[in-house]
Amino acid sequence: MTLFFLSVLVGWVLTAIVRLSCLKWQVFDVPNLRSAHRVPMPTLGGVGLIVGFWVVLGIHRILNMPLPESVWGLLGASVVLCLLIRDEVRSMGRLEKLCVQVVAALVLVQGGVVLESVTLGDFVFEFGSWDFFVTVFLMLVLQNVYNFMDGLDGFAAQQGVLVSGILAILLWGDAPFMAGLLVGVCGVTLGFWFWNKPPARIFMGDVGAHFLPLCFMMGAVVGESTGAISFGLAILPLGAFVFDAVYTLIRRLLRKENITLAHRFHVYQRLQVLGWTPWYINGIYALLTVILGGGAWLLQFGFVSVGYVLLGLSGLMVIGGTVYVERQYVVVERGDG
After folding, report:
1. Residues paired with residue 282 on neighbouring β-strands, in sequence order
2. How far apart are CA 109 and CA 167, in angstroms?
3. Rounded to an integer, what distance in angstroms lies between the CA atom of residue 165 and that of residue 283?
4. 231 C-beta neighbours (distance < 10 Å), count
5. Do the Cβ atoms of 65 and 179 come closer than 8 Å?
6. pTM score, two decimals?
7. Backbone phi, psi, residue 124, to 5°
8. What pLDDT score was predicted for residue 336?
9. Which end of the chain is flanked by fewer CB atoms within 10 Å, N or C?
């Protein structure tokens, strides 16, 4: 608990410092037609997250708490992601940003975070010589999914707190070193959330939106490799985020839209159009994340029937909610409601 509360304090203080620095140096996210905010907002909050992570590593050392061997890969990846600071000051090209993502993933893989297999029930799928490429690909997918979903006050930060906390619980028994690291990440992200919750006073930016999913990816891979939890169950708490991103991507592809252009067609963005407040949207996604996390815990520890009931419930909520949102959105778009 000491680590957690120290991490929350570190995240809060560093985010405050970054916010003041952004105000002083005029580093703002200027709104456009596709933005949810209406006034320029300090950004670079992700820098506070990463520096907070570095401080957490120091706290681990001071408290003589062991760390997973692959933590140095995550440390190196976090340094690489700091290159995305430039995008908040002067826009980077898509290829440049992709290169940063790839290098960060490669550094993490070289640090020992490699998904060699995936366990599904009694079946084990070995990737063999493709494990390197599969791992890098999944890291890139998760980074971009998370970045796509970072468009609402408190949204990505809340998800970061919940998923890192749930992962820490799932890994605590068989991978305590990784669980301890995730407790620190959870605390730092919660400290940032106090500044980012609606109405936000600072945004996470690309730096943080690419760092957090790499933390989750590392936790899931460590869980699979140690037998603490299967990769699929470890990623399950991200289900609502992943569904929204993938569903929106598929819908845009079917409509032959340019998927590289910014948009406001995610389910959570349509909820905003329908009049939902950021707090309500955050609440429903938090509920789904907790249900999915609970389902993962139940399945991991043998409560299979109850676990599948929870997952079925979350699936009905997601599908039913999406159908409702799409129908209501059409009504609003036509001006009939």
Report:
1. none
2. 20
3. 17
4. 22
5. no
6. 0.95
7. -125, 120
8. 56
9. N
